[in-house]
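Summary for the steering committee. The consortium agreed at its last meeting that each partner would contribute one worked example illustrating the joint modelling workflow. Our contribution is presented below. We chose a case with several input lines so that the handling of multiple components could be demonstrated. No manual editing was applied between input and output; the record is shown as generated.
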Amino acid sequence: MDKKLCIIGLGKMGSTLAKGLVNAGILKKEQIVGTDICVDNFEMNPVYCNIETLNDNIKAVQQCDIVLLSVKPQVIDKVLKEISSFCKDKIVISIAAGITIEHLEKALPSSAKIIRAMPNTPILVGEGVIAISRNKNVSDEEISMVKNLLESVGRVYLVEEDMMDVITALSGSGPAYVYIIIEALADGGVLMGLPRDLSLEFAARTVLGSAKMVLESNKHPGELKDMVTSPGGTAIRGIEVLENRGIRGIIMNAVKEAANRSQEINSQRGVKFDR
Ligand SMILES: NC(=O)C1=CN([C@@H]2O[C@H](COP(=O)(O)OP(=O)(O)OC[C@H]3O[C@@H](n4cnc5c(N)ncnc54)[C@H](OP(=O)(O)O)[C@@H]3O)[C@@H](O)[C@H]2O)C=CC1
Ligand SMILES: O=C(O)[C@@H]1CCC=N1
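What follows is the complete predicted structure of the assembly.
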């Protein structure tokens, strides 16, 4: 790919994307420029993988074909205002939770090619899942190019934008829920006497393997669960505890609340820009 990418905001997600794309070999490190307001951040954080870093968003945007906005929703308006006039012919990808294409369109030139995307942190290890939606200015060829770029770090799905808040809650935020589950499984092992490092390894590998079974076996998770639960055995005793405490409802509510928050982020911000 011969395009140059500018990542604005080299925080957790921006730097993860930079590293994921370079590791995947789809872009050379010379094809990515990253910006952040705090230059010290660059030195502190080794994950920037030697890409060029600037603390000047405009300079970075001017030298790139694709602009990826990876700042918090709370500061995105400020950044959009700063770079807007330099984005006429650019593909602008925003990964900001809750920020709609309509909102981005109001802040950018009418010709801007806008993509709203929702990745998740496992892109760092090439196992991300990424949803993308586009505005009318993005051609089929351009969306294929972006899809191809992002496919180097995960599975990419082109979705209707009205699914984005839920996807933000499920796969965008989901790693956080899964890490809590892994940590709790490991704590359970430690509680019962396993060494911490062994317990964490077993917990993480159990989640990894179980997810692979769901994806590769073509079996419903309930059927896979039944394969683990012998009558009168150990697993069903554990499940009884989880069901008594409402594990399913708790997880469903977590997704619902996160999706509500994604919607709230956009509606609470108003859509008002100085051109
Ligand atoms: N973390 C995640 O798992 C995911 C995050 N996202 C989205 O990605 C975006 C970034 O999130 P995340 O990486 O977690 O947040 P971070 O706060 O870690 O990263 C944002 C970075 O942008 C910097 N920044 C702030 N203002 C500017 C500016 N004007 N110009 C350039 N850089 C600036 C921040 O610097 P400073 O800290 O000094 O303010 C920070 O380093 C958010 O919109 C979030 O919704 C999407 C999917 C998953
Ligand atoms: O918590 C957040 O707002 C971001 C968006 C998705 C995951 N983390």
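The chain has two domains: 5-162, 174-262. The chain is about 55% helix and 15% strand.
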